Amino acid sequence: MTDALATQPADLAHALLDRRELLNLTRARLYLAGRLRARTPYGAAEFLQMKLAIDSGIWPPELYEKRLEVAVQVCDLYRHAFPRQYAASQAPPYSLRREQEFYVLANRHLFPLGPVVEAIRKDPSFFLPCITVKSMQPHDWRQGRFDFGKIGTACQLAQVLSGRAWTLAGGFGWREFALPHGLDCPAPAPGLDPVGWQLFSYACATEETPLRWLPAVFHLTSYQTGSVFLDKPDGMIVEWEPHKVGQLLLARRRAEEVLAAVATCEEWLDENPRERVARAVELWNRAAGIAAEAPAEATQYEPDLWRYLPETRGMFAQMEGEQ
Amino acid sequence: MSWQEDFVRALLDAPPYVNPAIALAVAAQRAELSGDAEYLTRAARGGAVERAIAEGQREGEAVGRMLGTLGRATPKASKTVPVGF
Predict the structure, then answer these.
(1) What does the pLDDT read at residue A214?
(2) What integer pLDDT is reported at residue A229 of this predicted model?
(3) Chain centre distance of CA A238
(4) Probe site for chain A from B50, B61, B67 (most A CB atoms < 10 A)
């Protein structure tokens, strides 16, 4: 077997100087990957389908090259992210089957890609031209899209305190929340301004109980957690690039941390809502009282995450900008 | 002047080298033209194709970065007068 890395014919460099059109790295990569891919059944079918469409003018000529680029990129990611599985793979190099193996592994170990196993079973020619980031949110928090009565206690509390709660019955607010839980504490102050929010967040952070994670519930329900898996209710599209895959992996971990914190806070509140919700409202009202005395501008309450997580703000803005 | 002479000498003495991905692609094309249809299959069996593509890509990116750095480098006045001036 000839290994081009081990031996290079002496006349190769001179021959290439005579035919400089061959000195194109992208073309060489795509030629090698395309040749190997077209030797598989699905690869050959894909090539013929696309050639037909391109020759008919339906698709632009560079579409097949883009498809090959995606295949090379995905296989490269597979080789780096899962080297043992890649080495043990029986699928031909740069084949569709090898890409699909990576989808399954990435979905299991890196970040959710949706029901890829099912999709491959239904359609053996299934492929992902890019990463489809699906939301990991338990509910759609946009107005009118969730049932107030079916969300957890912590989420209800966050909605009520931030003035965004509403119920299917048309009413919203403290009364609708307090009655079912049998609360008799004073009603919370209306929305906090940024100063009040900082005071409230700090007060929660100093709690030794799971109440310290209540600000995370606000972030979750207002799509401001810093993770694209929680902040994009309709999902988003990301290209198969190594640094973006790395960012998504970090974003998935961040999302899992937030969801775990919210779940713990909910469980804790549900154990004794009367006392524990009262404690949360006490902290809220105290923050509002202190903020009212401070010379702050009167602004409508919106939890401002970016003050506290500048590193995720930069990452999120970069991903949005590149999209 | 010695470092400039050394630099030019190193360039002149450098062996001919081709990016491994380009080298393998040209070798595969030559083999196919000469009737060896299994050349690439044999190369793929040992992982040579993937290595060539990966190392070729890495090399291409390194060259790109170097060219970018050269392009951004601050020009500096020479201490010698170029030939012809």
Answers:
(1) 96
(2) 94
(3) 10
(4) B50
